[in-house]
Write the C-alpha cells for this entry.
Amino acid sequence: MTDQEVQDYYEQQYVSVYRARYEDDIPLFEQEVLLSGGQTYYIPEGYRRIKHIVMALPDADAASAQIAAIYQALDAGESFESQMQRYSYDTSVPPEDAGYLLHADSQLWDEAFLSAALALEKPGTYRSRWSHRQAFTSSCTRRTNRPARWR
C-alpha cells in the first residue's frame, strides 16, 4: 500500500465524513466538538487558534502596569507561552497547547473578545484590547486550516 493510498483512505473514511457534517454548520461543530469534547478529523475553514492571558487585578492601573511588563518581556524576545505560564489564571489551556478555536461565526465567545481576537491579522501577533469584569486579556493568534488529525 502506498502513502497516497493510505492518505486517500484516511480522507474518505474519516475526514470527508466530518467535513460533510461540519463544513457549513459552525454551531453544530461547536456543540458537538468544542463544548462536548467529541472527536473530529476535520476543523471547518476559517477557525483560528487563540491563546490569551487572563489576569484578575484590582484596578486598571495595576492592569496597565502588568500588561506593560508582559509587552516588555515579549518585545525582549520571551515567548507568549512563558508569559501565559507566569501570569494567566486560565489553566484550561496549558501554554504548550495550540490554544482555543475561534471562528467569525462562533457563538461561544463574548462578542468584544471575538472581535479583538479576529482583528489580529498575522499569526504570532499580540495586543491588549479586551477587558471584562477586571479580567484583562492579551491575545495571541495561531491560524489553522488543517484537519484536526493532529489532535
In short: The CA atoms of residues 21 and 127 lie 35 Å apart. The chain is about 40% helix and 20% strand. The two ends are 25 Å apart (CA to CA). Confidence is low (pLDDT under 50) at residues 131-151.
